[in-house]
Amino acid sequence: MTMTLETATIPKPSRLMLAALALGLIILAGFLAPLISPHDPDAVDLLNRAAPPVGLGGSWGHALGTDQIGRDILSRCLWGIRTSFGIATLGLVFSAVLGVTLGIISGLAGAWTDRIIMTVVDVFISLPNLLLMLCGIALLGTETWVLVVLIGFVKWEGYARLVRGQVLAIREQGYIEAARVLGARNLTIALRHVLPNLASPLAVILTLSFPGVLLMEAGLSFLGVGVQPPVASLGRMIDDGRNYLVNAWWISGMPSIVIVAITLLFQIIGDAIRDRVDEWLDA
Question: Vertex 223, ends 221 and 229: CA angle to 5°?
Fold first, then answer.
C-alpha cells in the first residue's frame, strides 16, 4: 500500500507548542548563562564602549554591541534573564502559595474567618503595589530575598480571591458533603478534593500573571531599588542605557526586546491554555 501526498498529512505545530519551545529556549539560555556567555558580563572595556551590534557596523565579537563602559550586551542579557526570571519565578511561587492557602482557608473555615481574610484582601487590593514595595525596600534593603518576598507579598490577593470563589463552588458538591459525613477534616478535603480541581484555573492565572511579575521586577531595577550593580538584570540594563537612547539605543533596546519577547510568549501560552481549559469544560 502506497501513501499518497493527500493522505500523508503532517500535523502543523500548534501555537502553544511553538510559544512553549521559544520560551523554553530563552529560559535555557539564561540557565546556561555561565557556560554559554561569550564574555564576562562584568568585564569593562573602555576602549570599546558603546560599540554597535552586528548589522550596524559592529563585529561578531560583540554580536549585540557593548554598553556605555564596554560590557558585552549579549552576555549581560543572558545573565539578566537568569537574574530577572529567577526573582520573578520565586516571587510568583511565593505569592501563589500564600494566596492559594489563604483562599482555601477562607472558603472552608467558616464565615468569620472568611470575612477577616477577605477584609485583608480588600485592603491589599486598595493599596498601590509600588508604594508597598518601596516602603518594604526602604525598611529591609535591596537583597534578592527581599525582592522575592515583597513581590509575593503584593501579588497574593488575586490568587486568594480566585481560589476562594472556586472553593465556595466546590464545597457544595455532593462528594464534599459525603466526605464530611465520613468524618473528613478540612485539611483532608483541601488536599484530596479541592486542590486537584484548582489545577486548571491556577495554571491559567499563573501563566498570565508571570509577565506582570517580571515587569514589576524590571521596573524596580529600572528605578534603582531592585537588583544592585554589578549584578546583571534586564531592568537594570534598561536603566543603564536610558541616557544613551539617541546615540546607542541598543544598550536599553536589547534587554527591552528580551522582556517583550518573554512577556508575549507567556501571554500566548496563557491564552492557549485558557482556550484548552474552556474546550475541556464545554465538552
Answer: 45
Contact 91, 78 (CB under 8 A): no
For 45-63, write each residue's pLDDT tens digit. Answer: 888 888 999 888 888 889 9
**150-166 pLDDT, tens digit each:** 888 888 888 888 888 88
| Owner of C-alpha cell 534578592 | 144
Joined together, the cell numbers standing for residue 163 give: 481560589
Confidence (pTM): 0.82
DSSP states of 187-228: HHHIIIIIHHHHHHHHHHHHHHHHHHHHHHHHHHHHHTSSSP
Question: What residue ranges define each of the domains in the chain, with the CATH number in brackets?
Answer: 15-55+82-282 (1.10.3720.10)
Place of cell 541616557: 243
pLDDT tens for 189-223 read 777 778 888 877 888 888 888 888 888 888 888 88
Are 26 and 43 in contact by the 8 Å Cβ rule? The answer is no
| Phi, psi angle pair for 128, to nearest 5° | -65, 130
Sign of CA dihedral 167, 172, 173, 174: positive
Q: How far is CA 260 from CA 215, 248, 257, in A?
A: 9, 19, 5
